[in-house]
Amino acid sequence: MVIGFSGGPDSVFLLEVLLKLREEFSLELSLAHINHLLRGEESDGDETFVRCVAKRLNIPCFVRRQSMQEYAKAHRIGEEEAGREIRYTFFNEVAEETGADKVALAHNLDDEIETFMFRLMRGTSLKGLEGIPVRRERYVRPILNLYKGEIMEYMHKNNIEYRIDSSNLKADYTRNSIRLDLIPEIEEKYNRNFKEKIANLMEEIGEVNSILKVDYKRFLREDALEWQEIEVLTDYEKRKILNSYLTHYGVEVSRKKLDSILAVMKSGGSKELSLGKKMKLKKEYNKLYVSVDSENCIDDNLQVELKVPGEARFGRYRVRAVAGSCSVSGRESFAADIPPGSVLKIRRRQPGDRITISDKGATKKLKDIFINNKIPKEAREEIPIVTLEEEIVWIAGVRGNERYRVRKPDENSIKLIVEEGNFSERGEE
C-alpha cells in the first residue's frame, strides 16, 4: 500500500492508523511525497520531515519535486487542477513501481463537506454531490468518516509531530475560502451543526443514486446505443446513459450538451452532431454511436521516422525531439536519455507491447497502462508510440520508459514533446 504522505496532520494520522493495522493485515507500506516547490524553505522542510519519518520507520519513501505553477502554466489549467494531476500521476507511477494493490489517501469528512460546497457552487449532478468515494479503483480513503477535529484531538493528545502547510491558512484558493470563511460563518450565524447536516445529506444522496443508477452497457450493441430502447425512458435516464457513453469516449459532458442532444434526438430522422476533438455523434435508424473523423485514421503498419533533434507528424499529432532544457513539462513531454543523431520510429500500439516502469527493469503492458489512465479504447489506437531500436521509449502523452528517463534535464538533454492539432493550417512555429 502506497500512502500519499504530505507530512500534514491528516496523512500522519493515516500512517499511524495503518501502522497499527500493519501486522493484522500484512501491509507493506511505502510513502509518496510531492514537493510542489511553492513555499521555498517550508516545502523543503516538509520533504525533510517526510524522509526522516520514512527512515525512522524503515519504510520506502518516494519523492517528486515538481512545480505546480509551471505545470499549470504549461497546460493552461488552474493550479489546483495542476496539483491534482501531478499527485495522481505520481501516485500511479509509485504504485506500479512497487506493485502496490492500493494507494491510501488522507481525505477526511471535512474534505468531503468542502467538496460538496465547491461542486454545489460550480454546478454539478446528483452524482457529484455524493462527495469523495471511499474506494475507487486502486485508491482508498480509510479516514474519510472522521472529522478534522477528531483527528487533531488524537494528534495533540498523543503528542504526534506533524507539519503545517501555511498555504492552507490563506483564502487564496476557492477550497481554502470555503473552509476558512464560508463554513465557519454558516456555523456561527445559521446552524452550528451545519457540517453534520451536510454529511447526512451526502449519505442520503449516495443512497438515492444507487437506486437511480443506470447501466448504459445494457443498451449497447457493438459500440452503438440502441436508441429505440432508450427512447421510452425518462429524460433523466437518457441523460445518465448519454453521459456514461460519451465519457467512455473521453468527451467532456455538461447538462447543456446533454439537453441539446436530447432535443435533436426527439426531432427524428438521421442526425449528426459534432462533439469536438474530431468526433461526431451520429444517429442512423435506431443506432446512436460515436464516429471518429476518418481523415486522421492511421494505417496499422504505418511507421514514421523522427531524427533527433527534429519533428514528425503522426496522424493528428506532432512529435518533436528538442535539444536542451525545455519549459514544457508534464504528460505532454518526456526528458529522454537519447544521443543526438539517433533515429526514433513512431508507430501505433501493437499486441503485447510493454514498457519498462522502474529502474529495476519491471515492465507493464500498454493495455494496462491505458486502462489505469482511463484512456478510451478509440483514443488508444491514435496515440504515438515512440521507439528506439524496437524498444518503446515513450507512450506519447501518457508515460515514459524509466530506463530512458532523465531525472534532471539540462542543455544536453533531449526532450520529446507531443502536440495535437491541425498543424497544416497553423503553419510552422
From TrEMBL:
One of its GO terms (molecular function) is tRNA(Ile)-lysidine synthase activity. ATP binds at residues 6-11. GO terms for cellular component: cytoplasm. The keyword Phosphoprotein does not apply. Its EC number is 6.3.4.19. Residues 344-416 form the Lysidine-tRNA(Ile) synthetase C-terminal domain. Keywords: ATP-binding, Cytoplasm, Ligase, Nucleotide-binding, tRNA processing. It catalyses: cytidine(34) in tRNA(Ile2) + L-lysine + ATP = lysidine(34) in tRNA(Ile2) + AMP + diphosphate + H(+). It comes from the Bacteria. It is found in: Cytoplasm. GO terms for biological process: tRNA modification. The N-terminal region contains the highly conserved SGGXDS motif, predicted to be a P-loop motif involved in ATP binding. Belongs to the tRNA(Ile)-lysidine synthase family. Ligates lysine onto the cytidine present at position 34 of the AUA codon-specific tRNA(Ile) that contains the anticodon CAU, in an ATP-dependent manner. Cytidine is converted to lysidine, thus changing the amino acid specificity of the tRNA from methionine to isoleucine. This is tRNA(Ile)-lysidine synthase. The gene is tilS.
